[in-house]
Amino acid sequence: MPMSAKRAPATFDDLVRLRDDGRAVELVAGEIVEKAAPTPAHGRAELRFGEALGGYNRRTGGPHGPGGWWLMTEVEVLYEKSHEVFRHDVLGFRRDRHASCPSETPVRACPDWVCEILSPSTARYDIVQKQRTLHGHGVAHYWILDPEHATLTVLRHSEPAYLRILDAGAGERVRAEPFDAVEISVSALLGRDDDD
């Protein structure tokens, strides 16, 4: 019985070629993964993150919020140890660790906070492989927003794995690290208007 040939793992060059063709792709554990086309709920959730965390996306201090972060959406990050490239839904870099906003593509600096908004077609990558990679690269905080189940899960880096420190659902208001200086509506993060 003939053996089937194993396919070689995908490379960064493969990702770049597809990205240059206009495709939204990631390189996860040697596999090219097509990002799900954002649904209206997903798009609203990304936008609402900006609104909810806007007070952090500035220099520290001042009258407009606690500041101290560079926040962005849909930015490619290269995780050098594992040779993976993720295009996170929302991510942030602490300004006390990054004097200027990372600007290269892909970003080679490791974020301090990442949030993935789950899509049914790619949720397993976000929950399993990405979580392992982020932990292995020392990402301090990982949030998982699940529009289908209307939940927010907050994870904090610890050894040997992330600690699950908060689970909340639609209708709840939370103080979730590292942004616990302000109260955040989980419904607002989900793009819902039920408690605005």
Structure description:
With 196 residues, the protein is an alpha+beta fold. The protein has a single domain (37-82, 89-189), classed as Alpha-Beta Complex (tt1808, chain A). Helix content is 21%, strand content 30%. It has 4 helices and 10 strands; from the N terminus they run αββαβββαβββββα. The strands form 3 sheets. The protein has a 6-stranded mixed beta sheet with strand order 3-4-5-6-7-8, sandwiched between helices. Helix 3 links the parallel strand 5 (113-117) and strand 6. The relative contact order is 0.14. The model has no long low-confidence stretch (mean pLDDT 90).
Brief summary of the model shown:
By secondary structure, the chain is α+β, with helices and mostly antiparallel strands.
Question: What is the SS-derived class?
Answer: alpha+beta
| CATH 4th-level superfamily | tt1808, chain A
Number of strands: 10
What is the CATH third-level topology name?
Answer: tt1808, chain A
Gyration radius from CA atoms, angstroms: 17 Å
Shape field: globular
* Overall mean confidence score, pLDDT: 90
Strand percent estimate: 25-35%
Q: Count up the domains.
A: 1
Distance between the termini: 63 Å
Helix content: 10-25%
CATH architecture, by name, is: Alpha-Beta Complex
Main β-sheet, in a few words?
A: 6 strands, mixed
Q: Can you list the strand order of the major beta sheet?
A: 3-4-5-6-7-8
Which blocks of ≥5 consecutive residues have pLDDT under 50? none
User: Element order, helices and strands?
Assistant: HEEHEEEHEEEEEH
Count of separate DSSP helical elements: 4
